[in-house]
Amino acid sequence: MSKRRLSLQQTRRIAQQNHQGVESDLAGCEGLVVSPLRQQAEIEDCVTGERTRCHLRANLPPLTVGDRVIWQPGSPTGVVLALKPRRNCIQRPDSFGNLKLVAANVDNALIVLAPEPVAHANLIDRYLVALHALDIRPVLVLNKSDLLVPGHDMLMLLAGYEALGYACLRVSAQTPASLTPLQAILAEGTNILVGQSGVGKSSLLQALLPDEAIKIGELSEGVAKGRHTTTHARLYHFAGGGECIDSPGIREFGLGHLSAEQVAQGFVEFEDFLGRCKFRNCTHQEDPGCALIRAREEGAISPERFTSYQQILASQSLTTPKTSTP
Predict the structure, then answer these.
(1) pTM assigned to the model
(2) Are residues 105 and 177 in the same domain?
(3) Strands 40-45 and 29-36: what pairing?
């Protein structure tokens, strides 16, 4: 009997499994990466909850917090044998433009904002575009809200995103009662706190987990920018359910790995107008018959959001000349 030929899909699946170190006869325990280290990782056993520092098998790809793995205990350190398939993976560019892992298998991303350092709208939009592409639910969290008077620019900014349908919370790490809605979101699934350094991500986490020793920093003197107190991401569990990843502050969020189409889809109010332009490959710049430009002129899309969208395209050089015909 001739050997059965594998389908293209089966061949790709086997290649992916081999790349990730997943083998059908692999014996070990299922674990969760709670903190990635340079050549090691802190692994939590999914059954016992015990945490062990582990070496990484040589053929493994880089790991990140939230990864599910197969590992074997050892004395004094264990060993990670394989990486299980990821549902999603958040990445950010380093200073050289290379993508760096931040977290994996995330359900909700809490974008933490504060009066200082001020988060401009384009930075928030970059977060939202990236999360939309990963199918991760964003929640905007305005921290230190007790310091704001009615009509403050940050409150007005948040109201604009609320009008678009985004979940928005106003909290303060110094006011426990304000954290109740935040606790309700964190009680389910895997969550991650993202945002600029100094907005109070670690302070919020410390208020929610008073028994944990979480390093908290202050704003740099002279400039309203935060110091990086979280040097690598770490996962924490809540007694009532759910878990949260505290990530290093991100002052910029590159989107160079996304297509122009993915960027447009990340602006939720564009949905009804995409695909309705006169030209199939409309760049949404100054193209005749552009449905997005018409929507902006008619007030269906805010000029500020449309400008932010164009700034993202320009910064990533995602636009291409229009060559097709109607």
Answers:
(1) 0.82
(2) yes
(3) antiparallel
